[in-house]
Design a protein that fits this description.
Layout lengths: L3 E5 L2 H12 L3 E6 L12 H14 L3 E6 L10 H13 L2 E4 L10 E4 L3 E5 L5 H5 L4 E5 L2 H17 L1 E2 L2
Parallel strand pairs: 2-3, 3-4
Antiparallel strand pairs: 1-7, 2-5, 4-8, 5-6, 6-7
Helix pairs in contact: 1-2
C-alpha cells in the first residue's frame, strides 16, 4: 500500500523540513516563488533555505526550476535574492524557455517520494495562505513527475 498525506495550510512546513533533512542523494524542486529571508528573525522561509543549504553542503544534489528574470514576466523580487543565495550554496538552477511561467509546485526527494500542490516556498504559503499539497510515494505517479521535471530541466535555460 502506498502512502499519501494531505498537507493543508501551514502543515506542509514541518513535513518538508523533516524530508529535506532525511534526503540522501537528490532534491528536484519546481516552484514559482521562493524566499530565503523575511524581516522577522528565523522565518519559516529562512529555516527552509538553511535546511536546503545544509543538504547541499552534505553533498545532496539540488536542482531547482524557478520563475526567473530570464523567463520574462512577473518575477517576484524575493526570487532574485533566493536565486543568488541558492547559487552561492551550490544549487543548480534553471528557468523555462520562451518566457513560459514556471508555476508548478513539486519537490522530489531521492526519486523515491514527492510533494505536489499549491504551496510556494514562501512565508505566506507556510503561514497565511489557504494552500494544499499532497505527499506521496506512489511509484507510477512519482515516475511521471520525475519524467516531467527531467523534461523541463533538459530544455531549460541555465541560470547564472
Amino acid at each position: 500500500m502506498q502512502k499519501c498525506i494531505f498537507l493543508a495550510d501551514n502543515t506542509l512546513f514541518e513535513d518538508l523540513i523533516i524530508r529535506v533533512k532525511r534526503t540522501r542523494f537528490s532534491l528536484d524542486i519546481l516552484t514559482f516563488k521562493m524566499e530565503t529571508e523575511r524581516k522577522k528573525k528565523q522565518s519559516k522561509a529562512q529555516i527552509l533555505f538553511e535546511a536546503l543549504a545544509a543538504a547541499i553542503a552534505r553533498g545532496i544534489r539540488c536542482r531547482l526550476i524557478m520563475h526567473t528574470s530570464q523567463a520574462g514576466r512577473g518575477v517576484p523580487v524575493s526570487n532574485k535574492r533566493a536565486l543568488k543565495k541558492l547559487l552561492e550554496s551550490g544549487a543548480e538552477v534553471r528557468a523555462l524557455k520562451n518566457e513560459r511561467v514556471q508555476h508548478a509546485k513539486l519537490i522530489i526527494f531521492d526519486n523515491e517520494d514527492a510533494i505536489i500542490g499549491s504551496h510556494n516556498l514562501s512565508e505566506k504559503s507556510f503561514t497565511e495562505n489557504a494552500e494544499i499539497s499532497i505527499y506521496f510515494a506512489d511509484k507510477i505517479l512519482l515516475y511521471q513527475c520525475q519524467q516531467y521535471f527531467d523534461r523541463l530541466w533538459t530544455s531549460g535555460i541555465i541560470y547564472k
